[in-house]
Design a protein that fits this description.
The protein is α/β, with parallel strands linked by helices and about 190 residues long. The protein is built from eleven helices and five strands.
Amino acid sequence: MAHSDAHIPLAEKLRPRQLSDVIGQQHILGEGMALRVAFESGQPHSCIFWGPPGVGKTTIARLMAEAFDAQFISISAVLGGVKEIREAVEMAQNARQGLQEYRTLVFVDEVHRFNKSQQDAFLPHVESGLFTFIGATTENPSFEVNSALLSRAAVYVLQALSAEDLLQIIQKAQRIQAIVPVAKDAERKTTNG
């Protein structure tokens, strides 16, 4: 039986596999920009990605884990709680104590949904360096993330994708035959609003 990727969602098919594949966010990922420098330094740091849905918060976090050869643990604050935080801590401890020591990056999607005590549960582990914390939020972290966690993380603001960015995504989807060809008229309408 031949393997088919027809069931794979379009967003997953188009997900960048390396930093240079990311479309948009050049204000933080472009040459010499803050997050790009962090990638190139080889030294991960805790951060919070703030921006609208669909702009690459999860993708950039995954790319960070790959760039730093770290295990990637993802927690959804919508679905998870203290149990998932404890499991992440245990996995990070096991990675640190294994025969081949690994870094751990803990990604918390919708971090603003965790209450103060849940957010506080990350603090001792971020401070000890057990793992690198990355939170993603669509809400202003100054109001939605507790100050203790916020003070230990750099905040990167991700912007909505421009019409030109969307056109690049459409073209990429066509190149890999993930969508049917789009008429040039439709492409022009994408970039002209």
